[in-house]
Inverse folding.
């Protein structure tokens, strides 16, 4: 379903207002919390509407679905983040068309992205994805495996390690949401001791953004609250 540009603008204003409200509640500077608009499955026209309402960074999960949109909207200056599962035969396209990849969770993918990121582009910004609740079917590294992969990524000349990302176990309970995010923040702080330049703690979606802000998120990934429910 496609939403009217005015509705998208209103949704964005509401999300921005909520970020300021929750940041204030937890004594944080809202300027330290960036917003990634998750546009997976949504048409280019809706991305355009959000862009015209001042939103510059967009996240996509499915390569096939995103490439036509990226090509259609080329030249606007949109910052594209890949936030889906990565198959190793897709790393060439991902490295060519995205500015960030937030879902790096194994050496093979890191090395292939590094190899395919061409010299005419700036290094690809990368977050390591952490399986913070150690869920069976979920992608991501276990927290104890983060330092080894970080050491590899830090040595890749065409990758720029920015930080950590996680999708915690779904829970409607605020304290449980906070507990997962707190574990990711501890993991981030430990990594920051070795890599002081990392700056991104990507956590928080439409249904748990308040808990994520409370625990130090620097990047919220918001889809539904901006673009409406997905089919
Ligand atoms: C879909 C998705 C989001 C956005 O989720 P909403 O609940 O729609 O805000 C954020 N991060 C990732 C990795 C996603 O796949």
């Amino acid at each position: 379903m496609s939403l009217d540009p005015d509705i998208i603008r209103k949704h964005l204003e509401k999300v921005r207002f909520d970020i300021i409200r929750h940041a204030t509640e937890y004594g944080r500077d809202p300027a330290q919390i960036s917003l990634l608009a998750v546009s997976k499955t949504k048409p280019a026209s809706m991305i355009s509407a959000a862009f015209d309402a001042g939103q510059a960074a967009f996240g996509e999960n499915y390569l096939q679905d995103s490439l036509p949109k990226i090509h259609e909207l080329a030249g606007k200056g949109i910052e594209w983040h890949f936030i889906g599962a990565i198959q190793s035969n897709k790393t060439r396209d991902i490295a060519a068309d995205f500015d960030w990849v937030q879902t790096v969770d194994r050496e093979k993918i890191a090395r292939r992205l590094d190899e395919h990121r061409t010299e005419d582009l700036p290094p690809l910004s990368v977050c390591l994805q952490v399986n913070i609740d150690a869920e069976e079917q979920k992608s991501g590294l276990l927290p104890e495996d983060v330092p080894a992969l970080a050491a590899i990524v830090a040595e890749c000349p065409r990758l720029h390690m920015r930080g950590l990302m996680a999708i915690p176990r779904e829970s409607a309970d605020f304290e449980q949401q906070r507990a997962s995010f707190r574990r990711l923040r501890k993991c981030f702080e430990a990594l920051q001791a070795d890599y002081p330049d990392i700056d991104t703690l990507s956590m928080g979606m439409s249904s748990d953004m308040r808990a994520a802000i409370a625990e130090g998120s620097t990047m919220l990934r918001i889809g539904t609250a901006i673009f409406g429910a997905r089919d």
About this structure: The radius of gyration is 17 Å. The mean pLDDT is 97. The first helix runs from residue 5 to 25.
